[in-house]
Write a structure and sequence with these properties.
Blueprint lengths: L2 E8 L5 H16 L4 E8 L6 E8 L2 H12 L2 H5 L5 E6 L2
Antiparallel strand pairs: 1-3, 1-4, 2-3
Length: about 90
């Protein structure tokens, strides 16, 4: 069963530049992960600082490996403490 994550990250204005810069590498690394079927992060056209997130992984193991990698990555460090609102299904 695939695991999906849908939601958003709400980046404070004073951290937007750093997050946008780090996002490029984060997307590249995530899409290269084994079991990543879809990974999209798109800036909202209507809400400043909001990035809509849509992910799909082959299975629970692939999703958990992604989560572990993110925690120890530059992306994890740069976005630490930034509010997220995600719904995960398939776990």
């Amino acid at each position: 069963m695939t695991v999906t994550l849908e939601g958003y990250i709400q980046v404070p204005e004073d951290r937007l530049d750093e997050v946008r810069t780090a996002l490029v590498e984060h997307i590249k690394l995530t899409r290269a992960e084994p079991g990543c079927l879809r990974f999209e992060v798109v800036a909202s056209q209507t809400k400043m600082g909001r990035f809509d997130v849509s992910e799909e992984f082959l299975d629970k193991a692939a999703f958990e490996a992604h989560q572990a990698r993110v925690k120890s990555s530059d992306w994890g460090r740069i976005t630490q403490g930034i509010p997220r609102d995600y719904e995960i299904s398939g776990l």
